[in-house]
Amino acid sequence: MKFHFISSTASDAIKAKEEYIKVYKQTDPELADIIIPIGGDGILLKSLHDFNDLNKPFFGINYGSVGFLMNSKSNKNLKELIKNSKSTDLKPLKMIAINEGNNTHESIAYNEVSLMRQSHQASKFQIKINDIKRMNELICDGVLVSTSAGSTAYNLSAHGSILPLDSKLLALTPISAFRPRRWRGALLSEKSIIKISVLNFKDRNVSVTADNIEYRNIKEVTIQSSEDKNCKILFDNNHSIEDKILN
After folding, report:
1. Same fold across 3-90+230-246 and 93-225
2. CATH 3.90.190.20 correct for 93-225
3. So what's the pLDDT on residue 161?
4. Where are the domains of the chain?
5. Which residues are tagged catalytic?
6. What ranges in the chain are assigned the alpha helix state H?
């Protein structure tokens, strides 16, 4: 079993990476069997963007803070941990955004796609689900669509629902909603096609961000699950996202 190790810039993560390489050797990502991100959820997200086209499974080791999607550090044999781990398939989001100049931008997001106002004024959005208008006007700072894996990230900070990794759901969550004031969002099938239009895009500019890739002055965004960018994340038997949420 061959590994490619990658770490965050945190000193503990860098030191752990060096120690793992001494024991298990470093293999180029193209030739490795498993990609091993070391750090927090952020380094796992970066690894997915950098290496998922190689069709390798990922086994994250937590040297960050909470690390919802990471495995706890362990003194056990890494090969045995991975051999006995369970695999979870994650579908990222495919985003197609159109800006004010009618230019099209496409991107993939493993956590979330978020639209956010660019000025001091609130934004106004219209939301369609599968070509059916579900909200005529949402006035808010922004709105996001999250995968199950990303539901513990920005979505959680925006008071969105936490989704089990195998739920096959997406979270549609407003950010500081003004009207409808009591709307807390919705849970949607991962097969849904979500179209968010900016009603006043010429007067109140809006940006869209797919994970860490941002486009500005957007007037329309279509979001759906990607069918060809699935990734496999491995979890050891001691991993429990529920325990991390409750703690």
Report:
1. no
2. no
3. 93
4. 3-90+230-246, 93-225
5. 41
6. 11-24, 41-51, 78-83, 154-157, 241-246
Beta strand 112-117 pairing with 206-210: antiparallel
> Would you state the structure tokens that stand for residue 216, as one six-digit string?
């500005």
10-residue mean pLDDT series, the chain (247 residues) = 96 96 97 97 94 95 87 90 91 97 96 96 97 96 96 93 91 96 93 97 95 96 92 82 56
Rounded-to-integer distance, Cα 101 and Cα 126, Å: 19
Please check whether residue 210 is in contact with residue 93, taking contact to mean a CB–CB distance below 8 angstroms: yes
Q: Which amino acid is at 8?
A: S
Tell the CATH topology of 3-90+230-246: Rossmann fold (3.40.50)
Positive or negative CA dihedral for 67, 68, 74, 78?
negative
pLDDT of residue 64: 84
Indicate the DSSP class of residue 58. B
HSE (CB half, 13 Å, CA atoms) of 52?
19
pLDDT confidence of residue 130: 98
Nearest to 229 by CA among 97, 60, 61, 51: 51
Nearest to 68 by CA among 98, 39, 46: 39
Report CA dihedral (40, 46, 50, 54) to the nearest 10 degrees: 50
Q: What is the pLDDT of residue 54?
A: 95
Q: Which residues contact 165 (CB under 8 A, 6 or more apart)?
A: 88, 90, 148, 149, 241
